[in-house]
Structures
1.
Amino acid sequence: MQTKPLRIGTRGSALALAQAHETRGRLMAAHGLPEDAFEIVVIKTSGDQIQDRPLSEVGGKGLFTKEIEEALLNRSIDLAVHSSKDMPTVLPDGLALTAFLPREDVRDAFISPKAKTLLDLPHGAVVGSSSLRRQAMIKRLRPDIEVVMYRGNVQTRLRKLDEGQVDATLLAYAGLRRLGLGDVVTSLLDTGDFLPAVGQGAICIESREGDAPTLALLAAIHDPLTECRLVAERAFLTVLDGSCRTPIGGLAEVDGETLTLRGCVLKPDGSERHDLERSGPVSQAEQIGREAGEALKALMGPEFLAN
């Protein structure tokens, strides 16, 4: 019998809170629990506080998880809700990704008052993006476009666009949908040109290994299909030492018992891109991801990432 509220740790942005509320709602429905059986604990992370520089310059993805993971380890929260694409590939000892919610649409959304698509933007237009992957893909498709660093939460980025600071921006469609902002999208980018970030569109839940009561609660809302896809994508990223310093795209999709992973790596200026596809049984998701990463590494050669 659960006597005290289950404490759900999250960042404080509107999107992070929407994801925490979705997790709480699914747990309430799965177990017939009232809202007061849960407490949402907002934790300010380093990544939220540093807004003036690219994350690649100050420590990468872990800046969005460090303080939350410390709270898990010191037991001031019971579980943490994250965007999977923010998660480093190596987690602290004693913590694990123990549940995934059903994955949303993985595509990137193009938003602009100036053009219907990225290709329709006028010559020399300015696009705001803080993602090295998106920056490199924009430059590859449109070398004439100026891409500027563009930090802040979803609402901040949309406000900057409204103010005319940039002509367009790209955001994850999944996040916009979760915020009820799907109608701001001008067009969606095909995953052929624009492979998403590893984990894009998937909410993951991190908890302490061996915490049986929490694991039992989470088992009821876990989506094995999303986990299978993310296992492959994260294995791929691990091999490539994926960080915020490397433009990498990766997407695993499942058809019946077959998993297909597509991955790409670009030079930051978009001048070079390498793509790879690997398929196999879903039971070998991690192996497929690792092999795809190794094959892509071999294709790129040792100098590619060094430069």
2.
Amino acid sequence: MKHKVTPFLMFNDQLEAAMEFYTTTFPDSEIRNVARTAKDGPITSAEFVVGGQVFMGYNGGSYFAFSEGFSLYVDCENQAEVDEYWDKLVKAGATPTACGWIKDPFGLSWQIVPRRFRELIADKNPKKVQAVMEAMMTMMKLDVAELEKAYDAA
């Protein structure tokens, strides 16, 4: 299926390593097309899929940098899935920031979020939502048990 809008990521010179990490970390991922400036030269641009989402990538040089203004949101079924992706990112050299956010070694920010968090903050009781949000603000990696504890106590 051809997408009308595709995120385009500008890497310094790490496109190939980033694609390899992303496509081996997330299911439903693949490297589709690559372009090289020479037969055995480095990849300059590529089309790849991560978790079913199509991306275009380019090695644009040090002029380009990612910021937290753009992040990739990972919808995790449960705490085990949160732990799995978080651990894979940390093992690869990612830096945890706050509130379920983590910056990968290529500079791209990810949000690793358990589905239960979204369910809890969708509650009609604003005091419960506030308690969950306040608990989330104290966390690096999101912890479902602690979020539910805050919800139940509110």
